[in-house]
Design brief:
Layout: H1 4-11, H2 16-33, H3 37-57, H4 71-91
């Protein structure tokens, strides 16, 4: 008999985590292409942080293409790059957040 949490985990499509991250990244790219580069950069960094969170929460077989290396390396890489991108976008003082 399956545990209650196990059934819910398998109801999520295998590629859903990757699609979620890709949609956030695509929204960021749209903002960059419409000349709102800081908002776009924050969304791109947020996509990486979401990828890190999903990599922590999901089992290796459910993480799909978000699982590249070991869980620790993936989480450190995704979160590190995400934080760096967000910090750079927020600390560049030339222009406003929307410009």
């Amino acid at each position: 008999m399956n545990a209650p949490g196990r059934k819910a985990r398998h109801q999520v499509p295998l590629h859903a985590p990757l699609w979620l991250v890709a949609l956030i990244a695509a929204a960021g790219m749209v903002r960059v292409l419409t000349q709102h580069w800081r908002q776009g950069a924050v969304l791109l960094g947020a996509a990486l942080l979401v990828a890190a969170a999903l990599r922590v929460l999901l089992a290796d077989d459910r993480a799909g293409l978000l699982a590249i290396r070991s869980r620790v390396i993936d989480v450190l890489s995704y979160s590190g790059f995400g934080v760096v991108i967000i910090v750079l976008a927020l600390t560049i003082t030339r222009g406003s957040l929307s410009g």
